[in-house]
Each structure stands twice: as C-alpha cells, then as structure tokens.
Design goal:
Oligomer: single chain
Strand order of the largest sheet: 4-3-2-5-8-7
Strand content: 15-25%
Largest sheet: 6 strands, mixed
Helix content: 25-40%
Structural class: alpha/beta
Number of strands: 10
C-alpha cells in the first residue's frame, strides 16, 4: 500500500469527435496496454458525478486499456482573484470545503474508477518554499508590504504546485511498478477537474509507444518508457534551482513543462505529431481526406469553473495527431 496523505474542485471537460476505429476493430493479437491514470491537483468538481462518468463512458471503456488509478486531490485551492489575501483565501476554498460530506463524496467517486491503488486527500493548505541554495528560503515573495505581493506569491504556489502534482504521479507509479512488477505502456496525467464528453479512439488508433500527447498543461498522455522520468523531471529541476520559475514570473506552466520539465525526457521524435495524421485538414475530419489516420478529429478540452456546467472557460485540445 502507498501512504495516504489527505483530499479541492474544478471541472475541465474533454470532448472528442466521432472516432473511426472501434475497440472491436483492434487486432485480437494486439495485447491491451497497461495504462496508469493519474489525476492530481485541486479536487474542485471531482466529486461531481460528471467527471467520473465521463472517464468511464468516454475514455476507459472505448480506449480499452488495463487501467490502474492514482489520485492526489487537494481541498485547499490557490487563486489570485480576491481583492486581498484574506478574501482570496475565502474565494479559493468557497464551495470546496464542506469537509466531511465533501470528502465522502470524493471517496465515493474515486472508488468508481478502476483498480484504485493510491488515494491521497490533502486537507491542509500545501505551501512550497524555496529550496535551500535558491535564494530566499522562506517564501517566494520576501516583502508583502505593498499589499499586492501576495498575488505573486499565490502565482508561485500554483505553478510549483502543478509540477509537484506531476512529480507525485511519477513517484506513485514508480513505487507501484517496483512493488508489483507491472510496467505501464501509457501514463495519462490529468487534472481532477477534467472529463471526457465524447468517446476517445481506442488504443490501437494511437502510436502510444512512440508518441507523446499534450493539451496545454492540463493533460499529458506519455509513453511508458519515459513517463516516470518525465513526470518527475520538472520538480527535480525546481529543487536544483534550474527551473524558469525561480527567475521569471511571466513563465507559465506550459513553458516550464517543455523547457525544464517533461520535455527534457522526450526521446527523438517523441514530441512530433503522428505522421499519418499531422497533415490531415483541420476542417475536414472525413476518412476520405486522410485515409491513413485512424483518429477522426482532435479531442477538445474545456476548463469548467462551475460545478456541473460545461461552459465558461478556456478551450484546449488533445491534438488529432498527438504531439507535445
């Protein structure tokens, strides 16, 4: 068993168009891959049934892999939307912490996912400090006398928290593999507030052994041969004072992931789009226009900021041809 720590909320939605290749069309001789599903970050709207329903109906069942689940869910959120830090803390946790009932709802939803082996519910506010030797060693912002520096502090906490979420997934999957001998062919790391609202193509439609897929910093589908190192790399770089986040507050998570994190672990060509799909017309998803591509369209993502409401947020997509 893995150590259980303790359990926040958000609903990000992943849609996909119709898919050409159904699971029944995958070769009977092709072994179903092992997939580690790791949802890590603010729990936000995870307890809303829409999230797990979408994963089961539109990802787990049609994709057809042998899925093992790892969950790291934080009840305290980070935000920079309040007029001051006090209001900000209320806004960040509002509607997320009916602790007893909310934790039970989270547990119920978590247990619906297949082969749940790690469930960490974080009830305390996670605070990151500068690593020793990286300058200020108490907080990311030394002087809060301006009254606005807390916003920068919260930004740092959000960004470091994101790469730590990836690191947690890498550590948990690595330990599980060592203890069981199970090798994961694919790792899907996503936010806990993401769900699929349309069916994803089955595993045989993807070059999952050689290609990585990413949608901003929301979701990553990584080949197993590099997944653990890739997930751990960003936070390890932070601990070594090598990450861009120690130097430039304008660098957002996507840049950090590619410049000083996961991107450094990609093998040659792994971040390049699938050759059969990368030249397919974006506005023509028909099989006739691109017969070699088994994926009919991209898998759109949507960040949902209100419980159970699939609207009002930022669009993204898991590319039709993959790519990182």
């Amino acid at each position: 068993r893995f150590p259980t720590m303790k359990f926040v909320q958000f609903l990000l939605v992943v849609c996909s168009g119709e898919y050409i290749t159904e699971l029944s069309q995958c070769s009977q001789s092709e072994k179903r891959p092992n997939l580690a599903l790791c949802l890590a970050g603010g729990a936000r709207t995870f307890a809303d049934g829409h999230v797990v329903n979408g994963y089961i109906k539109n990802f787990i069942d049609p994709f057809g892999a042998n899925v093992t689940t790892f969950l790291y869910l934080k009840l305290h959120d980070r935000s920079t939307k309040g007029k001051d830090r006090a209001q900000n803390l209320v806004m960040a946790t509002d509607n997320h912490i009916g602790f007893g009932d909310h934790i039970e709802a989270i547990r119920r939803e978590a247990e619906r996912l297949p082969s749940l082996v790690s469930l960490d519910i974080i009830q305390h506010d996670v605070i990151f400090r500068h690593p020793p030797g990286c300058g200020k060693n108490r907080s990311f912002v030394a002087d809060n006398s301006t009254g606005t520096a807390w916003r920068l502090e919260e930004l740092w906490q959000m960004l470091v928290g994101q790469i730590y979420n990836q690191y947690w997934c890498g550590i948990q999957i690595e330990e599980y593999s060592k203890n069981t001998g199970v090798f994961f062919d694919i790792v899907l790391k996503s936010r806990p507030d993401v769900t699929f609202v349309g069916q994803i193509p089955p595993f045989c439609a993807f070059d999952y052994r050689t290609k990585a897929c990413s949608a901003r910093d929301w979701m990553f589908m990584l080949p197993g041969i590099i997944a653990i190192k890739a997930l751990k790399r960003g936070y390890q770089e932070f601990l070594r004072c090598n990450t861009l986040m120690n130097r430039n507050k304008t660098k957002i998570a996507e840049v950090v992931v590619r410049a000083t994190g996961m991107g450094k672990e990609m093998l040659a060509g792994m971040g390049e789009p699938d050759k059969h799909c990368k030249h397919c017309p974006h506005n023509d998803p028909s099989p006739e226009s691109c017969p070699e591509c088994k994926r009919k369209s991209a898998t759109p993502l949507r960040l949902i900021r209100r419980k159970g409401v699939p609207s009002g947020s930022l669009p993204g997509a898991l590319p039709r041809a993959c790519g990182f």
